[in-house]
C-alpha cells in the first residue's frame, strides 16, 4: 500500500464526496433524520461525530494487531463508547444548553453505524495516520450533510437560519441568527420527520445528478458506474 | 348477427378525465348553492397551479408537454384537492397543496400512471399536518351563516385575508359536523343535544349532506359510464356503514349512525372519486374490495378514535402503500391453470 499523498487525497475525496456517509452510503441515518431540524443542531452533532470517528479510528488502528478477531466488535464498541462518553461529558460541561437540545442523540453516537463501519472497514486494516484522517473526513462528510439538511429544513420549516447558535457560541452570537423570511407562518412538515426523509431524498438525488453530470463531462460515462446511494442500515 | 369476441375501443385518458370532471359538476353546483361561490375561486386557482406545475415538470423531465397536459389528469387532481380544502383558505395554501400534489406526489414518481400515492390526498395530508389551524376554517352553511359574503368579498378574503367591515371570521365560518361531534362528545354532551344543533341537517351536516348526495349522483353517472366499477364504492361505503352501524346499535349515545358517516366529511367524494383512482389503487376486483373496505374501516377508526375529525386522506394513503401486496395476493386464477 502506498503511503504517498495520493492515498490521503483519496481518503479526503471519499469522505467528503465519493463515499459520503450521508448521501452515498446512507449510514448514520439516525442523527441525519432526527436532529436536523436546524443548521446548528445538525452541524454540532455532526462535528461531535466526526471528532469521535477520528479518535476511534486513531485508537483502534494502533491496537488492531493485538485484538483477536473473534471479539473485535465488542472491543471496538468499548473503545467507541469510552470516546463518546468523553465527548458527552465534555459537552455537558462546556456547552450545557446545546447538550440539553441534542440530548439522547449524543450517547447514541455509539450505536451509529458509520462509526463502527469505519473502524471495521478502515482502521482495522490501515495505519494510524490514514485511519485518523479517514475517520475525520467521513465524519466531516456526514456533518456537512447534516448541516445542509438542517439548513433546508430550518429555512422551509421556520424561515430562519442559524437559530440556536447562541447555544453553541454564547448569548453574544444571537445576532448571527438570520431571518430569511420575515413573518413566516412556518411549514410544519419540514420540521416533522417526513420533512427529514424528503429533504434527504432530495439531497441524494442532487448528489447523484451532480455526479452524473460530472462523469458525462469527463467523457467516461461508459467506464465507471456512478456510486449511487444504497441503503445499508441506520 | 354479432358474434363474440367484440373489438371495442377503450376510451382515451382524456375522455375518462373529462367524464370524471363532468361527474364532479353536480357536487360543485351543490357546493356553491350550500356554501357560497368561494369554492369556484379555489377550483380555478388549483387548476391553474396544477397545469403550470405539470407543464414545468414535464419540461424539466424532457417529456412531451402538450399530450400530457391535455389528458386532464392534472385538472382532476386539482379539482379533487380544491374540493377537499376549506374554500376560505388563503390562496397560498391551495397553491402549496397543489404544487406538492403535482410536483412531488405525481411527477417526481414518474408522472401519470406511476404515482404510488393519490396525488390529491398527498397534497391534502401535507396541508393538514403543516397548517392545522387554517385547515379547520370551514365556511358555515349559508342557511345558518351569520353573514353572507359576495363573490368579491370571498375573493378579497382568499387573496388579501380582508373581510368586509363588521363581519368577523366567526360569522362566516364554523367547525364541520364531524369536528363538532367529536369535540362535543369528549365534553360529555349527549348525542341528541349535539345533533339537534342548527349545524346538523337531516342525517349529515346541513348543506354538506346535499353536496354528498350530489357526489353520489356524479358517482352513479361514472358507474353507468363504466369509468369505475361498483367494487370500490360499495366496499368502502359498506365497510363504513357496517362499522358505524354496529357501534351505533351497541351504544347510540356515543357513536353516530351509518347515515351520518356516509353523508359527512369526504365519504362520498372518497367512495366515488378518490379511492377509485385507477393508478394508485389495486387492479383486481377482489383487491378493490379489500382495499376499499380497509379504507372504510380506517376512516371510521380515525373519525371516532383518532386525533383528526376526518380520516379519509390518511386511510387512502395508508392503503395506497398496501396496493402492491393486495394486487400480488388477489391475482385471479388463469383459466386452465391449476390453483
TrEMBL record, chain A:
It comes from the Bacteria. GO terms for biological process: electron transport chain. Keywords: Cell inner membrane, Cell membrane, Electron transport, Membrane, Translocase, Transmembrane, Transmembrane helix, Transport. Its EC number is 7.-.-.-. GO terms for cellular component: endomembrane system; plasma membrane. It is a multi-pass membrane protein. It holds the Pfam family Rnf-Nqr. It is found in: Cell inner membrane; Endomembrane system. InterPro entries: NqrDE/RnfAE (IPR003667), RnfE (IPR010968). Part of a membrane-bound complex that couples electron transfer with translocation of ions across the membrane. Belongs to the NqrDE/RnfAE family. The complex is composed of six subunits: RnfA, RnfB, RnfC, RnfD, RnfE and RnfG. This is Ion-translocating oxidoreductase complex subunit E. It comes from Novimethylophilus kurashikiensis. The lineage of its organism: Bacteria, Pseudomonadati, Pseudomonadota, Betaproteobacteria, Nitrosomonadales.
TrEMBL record, chain B:
GO terms for biological process: electron transport chain; transmembrane transport. It is a multi-pass membrane protein. The modification FMN phosphoryl threonine is found at residue 176. The keyword Flavoprotein applies. Its EC number is 7.-.-.-. It is found in: Cell inner membrane. InterPro entries: NqrB/RnfD, RnfD_bac. Its cofactor is FMN. Keywords: Cell inner membrane, Cell membrane, Electron transport, Flavoprotein, FMN, Membrane, Phosphoprotein, Translocase, Transmembrane, Transmembrane helix, Transport. One of its GO terms (cellular component) is plasma membrane. The keyword Phosphoprotein applies. The chain crosses the membrane at residues 12-33, 39-58, 65-85, 91-109, 121-140, 203-223, 230-249, 255-275, 287-306. Belongs to the NqrB/RnfD family. The complex is composed of six subunits: RnfA, RnfB, RnfC, RnfD, RnfE and RnfG. Part of a membrane-bound complex that couples electron transfer with translocation of ions across the membrane. This is Ion-translocating oxidoreductase complex subunit D. It comes from Novimethylophilus kurashikiensis.
Amino acid at each position: 500500500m502506498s503511503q504517498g499523498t495520493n492515498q490521503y487525497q483519496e481518503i479526503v475525496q471519499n469522505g467528503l464526496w465519493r463515499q459520503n456517509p450521508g448521501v452515498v452510503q446512507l449510514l448514520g441515518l439516525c442523527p441525519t433524520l432526527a436532529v436536523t431540524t436546524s443548521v446548528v443542531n445538525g452541524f454540532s452533532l455532526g462535528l461531535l461525530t466526526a471528532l469521535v470517528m477520528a479518535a476511534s479510528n486513531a485508537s483502534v488502528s494502533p491496537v488492531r494487531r493485538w485484538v483477536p478477531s473473534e471479539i473485535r466488535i465488542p472491543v471496538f464498541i468499548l473503545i467507541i463508547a469510552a470516546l463518546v462518553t468523553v465527548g458527552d461529558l465534555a459537552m455537558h460541561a462546556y456547552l450545557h444548553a446545546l447538550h440539553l437540545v441534542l440530548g439522547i442523540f449524543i450517547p447514541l453516537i455509539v450505536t451509529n453505524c458509520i462509526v463502527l463501519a469505519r473502524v471495521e472497514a478502515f482502521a482495522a486494516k490501515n495505519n494510524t495516520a490514514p485511519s485518523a484522517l479517514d475517520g475525520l473526513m467521513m465524519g466531516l462528510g456526514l456533518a456537512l450533510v447534516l448541516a445542509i439538511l438542517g439548513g433546508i429544513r430550518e429555512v422551509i420549516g421556520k424561515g430562519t437560519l442559524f437559530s440556536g447558535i447562541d447555544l453553541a457560541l454564547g448569548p453574544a452570537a444571537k445576532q448571527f441568527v438570520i431571518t430569511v423570511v420575515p413573518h413566516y407562518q412556518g411549514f410544519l412538515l419540514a420540521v416533522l420527520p417526513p420533512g427529514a426523509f424528503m429533504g434527504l431524498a432530495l439531497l441524494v438525488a442532487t448528489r447523484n445528478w451532480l455526479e452524473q453530470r460530472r462523469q458525462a463531462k469527463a467523457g467516461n460515462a461508459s467506464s465507471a458506474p456512478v456510486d449511487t446511494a444504497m441503503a445499508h442500515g441506520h | 348477427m354479432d358474434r363474440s369476441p367484440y373489438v371495442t375501443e377503450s376510451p382515451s385518458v382524456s375522455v375518462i378525465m373529462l367524464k370524471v370532471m363532468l361527474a364532479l359538476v353536480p357536487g360543485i353546483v351543490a357546493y356553491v348553492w350550500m356554501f357560497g361561490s368561494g369554492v369556484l375561486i379555489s377550483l380555478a386557482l388549483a387548476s391553474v397551479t396544477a397545469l403550470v406545475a405539470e407543464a414545468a415538470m414535464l419540461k424539466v423531465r424532457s417529456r412531451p408537454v402538450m399530450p400530457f397536459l391535455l389528458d386532464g389528469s392534472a385538472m382532476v387532481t386539482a379539482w379533487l384537492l380544491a374540493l377537499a380544502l376549506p374554500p376560505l383558505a388563503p390562496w397560498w395554501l391551495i397553491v402549496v397543496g397543489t404544487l406538492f400534489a403535482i410536483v412531488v406526489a405525481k411527477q417526481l414518481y414518474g408522472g401519470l400512471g406511476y404515482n404510488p400515492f393519490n396525488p390529491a390526498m398527498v397534497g391534502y395530508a401535507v396541508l393538514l399536518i403543516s397548517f392545522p389551524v387554517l385547515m379547520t376554517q370551514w365556511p358555515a352553511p349559508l342557511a345558518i351563516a351569520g353573514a353572507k359574503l359576495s363573490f368579491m368579498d370571498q375573493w378579497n378574503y382568499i387573496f388579501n385575508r380582508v373581510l368586509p367591515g363588521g363581519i368577523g371570521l366567526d360569522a362566516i365560518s364554523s367547525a364541520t359536523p364531524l369536528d363538532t361531534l367529536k369535540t362535543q362528545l369528549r365534553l360529555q354532551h349527549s348525542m341528541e343535544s349535539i345533533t339537534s344543533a342548527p349545524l346538523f341537517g337531516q342525517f349529515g351536516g346541513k348543506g354538506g349532506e346535499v353536496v354528498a348526495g350530489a357526489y353520489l349522483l356524479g358517482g352513479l353517472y361514472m358507474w353507468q359510464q363504466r369509468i369505475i366499477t361498483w367494487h370500490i364504492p360499495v366496499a368502502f361505503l359498506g365497510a363504513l356503514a357496517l362499522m358505524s352501524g354496529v357501534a351505533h346499535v351497541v351504544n347510540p349515545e356515543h357513536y353516530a349512525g351509518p347515515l351520518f358517516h356516509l353523508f359527512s366529511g369526504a365519504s362520498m367524494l372518497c367512495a366515488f372519486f378518490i379511492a377509485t383512482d385507477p393508478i394508485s389503487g389495486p387492479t383486481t376486483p377482489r383487491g378493490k374490495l379489500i382495499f376499499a373496505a380497509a379504507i372504510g374501516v380506517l376512516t371510521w377508526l380515525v373519525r371516532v378514535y383518532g386525533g383528526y375529525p376526518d380520516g379519509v386522506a390518511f386511510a387512502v394513503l395508508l392503503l395506497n402503500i398496501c396496493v402492491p401486496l393486495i394486487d400480488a395476493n388477489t391475482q385471479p386464477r388463469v383459466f386452465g391453470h391449476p390453483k
